[in-house]
Design goal:
This protein has ten helices and eight strands. The chain has a six-stranded antiparallel β-sheet, with helices on both faces. It holds the Pfam family HTH_IclR.
Length: about 250
């Protein structure tokens, strides 16, 4: 029987290293961690980049897992209990709210979008399933961060409204726990906002979040606070999914 193929083993090791990392890694960091020649690591990374398994940041030149690799894993999400229990409620939330709906779960210090329902209109939209979102700059992320998910990387400022200090983030998490929902307003993308609420499983443990997102003028009231109507729809959907997952408190 033929033995293992070394180049594939090395590629797998690089992917595992990037998956464990708290942020992007440079060629030198990867080569040193895996005891590879820098040229060898670079060649493998370029190959992985060519098939979409890794992506290179234009500004820093560092690498992270690519969308194509994340999408390969979405087949398991169809049988994942969180997603399967939430699909119908997510569709209903999109219909009631008129906005895009996303369901997120924690993954390696970020939010993995496990389900996405398009805004029910004719606008051009991109499927976000498999996308990794920051915890501190999104409504979905703030919900997960408020219930014991660790913020592994230093907070990145996406806009001037992004919360980047530990004090501000802890204060926001406390508000989420008190109110039972989270909001974002131009914190990841200027002009976009979102509202999210926790999805709980057995014992009331938060296992995910569901929310709506869209233009600030549709998601928020004139004073910038979340729309009362949309907030009600989001919380109702979160409770419904939680009940289906066995959270007795809902």
């Amino acid at each position: 029987m033929p033995g293992p193929i070394q180049s594939i083993e090395r590629a797998a090791a690089i992917l595992r290293l990037l998956a464990r990392g708290s942020g992007r890694l440079g060629v030198g960091e990867i080569a040193e961690s895996l005891e590879l020649a820098k040229g060898t690591a670079h060649g493998i990374l370029r190959t992985l980049q060519g098939v979409g398994f890794v992506e290179q940041d234009r500004d820093t030149g560092k690498y992270q897992l690519g969308a194509a690799l994340l999408h390969l894993g979405t087949s398991y999400l169809d049988v994942n209990e969180l997603r399967s229990r939430a699909i119908n409620w997510a569709d209903a939330l999109a219909a009631r709210s008129g906005e895009a709906v996303r369901i997120g779960a924690p993954l390696e210090g970020r939010v993995l979008v496990v389900h996405h329902v398009f805004r029910p209109d004719d606008s051009l939209q991109t499927l976000d399933v498999g996308t990794l979102l920051p915890l501190h700059a999104t409504a979905l992320g703030k919900v997960l961060l408020a219930y014991d998910t660790t913020l592994k990387a230093d907070p990145e400022p996406f806009t001037r409204r992004t919360l980047v200090t530990q004090t501000a983030i802890k204060r926001a998490c406390a508000k989420v726990r008190e109110a039972g929902w989270a909001a974002e307003n131009g914190e990841m993308i200027s002009g976009e906002a979102g509202i999210a609420a926790p999805i709980r499983g057995h014992g009331g443990i938060v296992v995910g979040a569901i929310g709506v997102s869209g233009a600030v003028e549709r998601i928020c009231e004139p004073d910038g606070s979340p729309s009362t109507r949309l907030l009600g729809h989001v919380r109702d959907a979160a409770r419904a999914v939680s009940r289906d997952l066995g959270a007795s408190r809902w």
